Design the sequence.
């Protein structure tokens, strides 16, 4: 689990206009802090998870974001 507080996968079905999506989906993973995220990624389990993801994902881009809850 690498210390995550949540892990969501969103699989793309289509675009709003009905075209094929440019990506297959997204994954959202959250940690209690950025420091815990970095520790998880630098751990042996984190390296194993990253290598596993590279086996099935054509492209991976990690975004570090701040969440703003609107409603």
Sequence:
């Amino acid at each position: 689990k690498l210390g995550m507080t949540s892990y969501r996968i969103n699989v793309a079905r289509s675009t709003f206009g009905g075209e094929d999506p440019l990506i297959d989906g997204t994954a959202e993973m959250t940690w209690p802090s950025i420091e815990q995220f970095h520790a998880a990624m630098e751990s042996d389990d984190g390296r194993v998870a990253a290598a596993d993801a590279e086996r099935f994902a054509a492209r991976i881009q990690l975004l570090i974001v701040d969440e703003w809850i609107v409603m």
